[in-house]
């Protein structure tokens, strides 16, 4: 079934490219599925978040899987005279709805295609993705208090705090076209309070996002391109 998985993946990516270039879709790749997600994990029951980077694992989720999204944006860092290495101060990402892809994944194949998507999506222009017709489920940013925030509109709001993180696998994309400082950690965030309808999020299959190792010669702030899968649970 590898061929079928690859075909699905390529079809999705062609459709992605077509929307970005504002051309009509040439491929009937994306079935016209309802935009409203089934509640309670219906339709998502065959999917489970990757937890292992090959040597370490994140704790398993306890909630119900609600959404799978593809994040694309920047991790923001600062440097100043007292810092030897960059410090994370924020992020800015659009969360694309992975649902149009799910019906294309052959049953029983796990998430092999999904898992590869961030390493492709990072090669697309962030601004073009934001302006495209690809269905967006929400946005990710740090609020004014520096709390990682995931705003899925009427589908929920997660104010996160870190629970666990593990390094990305060695073969993760280092950045756009595999150029960069490496892939940010995989991590689990849980409700920091005042979340609505969402309790846990997993950032996995990361591509890019890591800062340069040293502040030497760096002009802050630094915006580093990244992509990742974000899996949301309630
Ligand atoms: C799920 O529950 C287990 C047992 O209490 C805990 O160790 C783990 O950290 C929890 N996972 C999350 C994502 O909260
Ligand atoms: C440098 O940045 C760090 C992290 O943001 C901050 O805690 C520290 O106060 C800053 N130092 C100066 C001199 O601006
Ligand atoms: C992060 O960087 C983006 C640019 O990608 C910017 O729009 C956003 O305001 C920044 N947020 C923080 C908290 O630095
Ligand atoms: C991030 O990607 C955008 C295109 O999406 C590009 O214009 C920008 O130069 C990249 N930033 C860095 C720091 O590589
Ligand atoms: C990394 O290697 C694993 C094991 O071969 C593979 O399943 C995965 O797709 C690879 N990841 C990337 C981003 O190429």
Automatic annotation (TrEMBL):
Signal sequence, start to end: 1-22
Instruction: Establish whether keyword Signal is in the entry.
Output: yes
Alphabetical keyword list: Signal
Task: Write down the Pfam families for this protein, in alphabetical order.
Answer: DUF3455
User: What InterPro entries does its record include?
Assistant: DUF3455
Q: Which domain of life is it from?
A: Eukaryota
Question: Entry's PANTHER family?
Answer: CONSERVED FUNGAL PROTEIN (AFU_ORTHOLOGUE AFUA_1G14230), MALATE DEHYDROGENASE (AFU_ORTHOLOGUE AFUA_2G13800)
Q: What is this protein called?
A: Malate dehydrogenase
Q: Give the organism the record lists.
A: Imshaugia aleurites
């Amino acid at each position: 079934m590898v061929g079928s998985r690859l075909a699905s993946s390529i079809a999705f990516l062609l459709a992605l490219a077509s929307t970005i270039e504002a051309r009509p879709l040439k491929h009937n790749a994306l079935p016209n599925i309802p935009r409203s997600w089934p509640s309670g994990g219906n339709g998502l029951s065959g999917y489970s978040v990757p937890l292992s980077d090959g040597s370490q694992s994140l704790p398993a989720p306890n909630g119900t899987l609600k959404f799978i999204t593809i994040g694309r944006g920047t991790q923001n860092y600062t440097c100043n005279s007292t810092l030897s290495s960059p410090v994370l101060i924020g992020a800015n990402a659009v969360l694309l709805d992975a649902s149009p892809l799910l019906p294309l994944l052959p049953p029983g194949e796990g998430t092999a295609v999904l898992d590869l998507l961030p390493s492709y999506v990072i090669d697309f222009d962030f601004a073009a993705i934001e302006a495209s017709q690809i269905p967006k489920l929400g946005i990710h940013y740090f609020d004014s208090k520096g709390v990682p925030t995931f705003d899925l509109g009427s589908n929920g709001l997660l104010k996160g705090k870190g629970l666990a993180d593990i390094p990305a696998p060695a073969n993760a994309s280092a950045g756009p076209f595999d150029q960069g400082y490496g892939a940010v950690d995989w991590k689990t965030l849980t409700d920091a309070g005042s979340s609505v309808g969402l309790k846990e999020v997993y950032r996995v299959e990361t591509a890019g996002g890591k800062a340069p190792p040293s502040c030497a010669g760096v002009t802050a702030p630094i915006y580093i391109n990244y992509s990742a899968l974000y899996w949301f649970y309630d």
